[in-house]
């Protein structure tokens, strides 16, 4: 193996700048919607777990 990098530093930065210039708004909106769905699902699961824990704790106390 050589000590030479695979890519030149200038190439890496120019690719990064080119890709940063092109922002697709639809992709960003789709990604935001997917994240909102995931967040809602996680909140629902957490709420169900909390309600279940309270119910089990209440049942144990009544025995």
Care to describe what's here?
- With 63 residues, the chain is mainly alpha-helical.
- The protein has a domain of 39 residues.
- The chain has two helices and no strands.
- The longest helix is centred in the C-terminal third of the chain and has 38 residues.
- It starts with 8 loop residues before the first helix and ends with a helix.
- The model has no long low-confidence stretch (mean pLDDT 83).
How would you summarize what this structure contains?
By secondary structure, this protein is mainly α.
Question: Could you tell me the number of beta strands?
Answer: 0
The computed structural class is mainly alpha
Write the element-wise H/E pattern from the N-terminal end onward.
Answer: HH
Helix percentage range: over 70%
The value of Rg in angstroms is 25 Å
Low-pLDDT stretches are none
Count of helical stretches = 2
Strand residue percentage? under 5%
Mean pLDDT equals 83
Cα separation of the termini: 71 Å
Characterize the largest beta sheet: strand count, sense, and whether it forms a barrel: none
Q: Judging from the principal axes of the Cα atoms, what is the shape?
A: elongated
List the main descriptive attributes of the protein structure presented here.
63 residues, 0% strand, mainly alpha, 81% helix, elongated, 2 helices
């Amino acid at each position: 193996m050589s000590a030479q990098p695979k890519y030149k530093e200038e190439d890496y930065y120019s690719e990064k700048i080119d890709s940063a210039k092109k922002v697709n708004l639809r992709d960003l909106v789709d990604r935001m919607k997917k994240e909102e769905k995931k967040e809602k699902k996680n909140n629902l699961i957490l709420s169900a777990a909390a309600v279940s824990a309270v119910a089990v704790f209440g049942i144990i106390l009544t025995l």
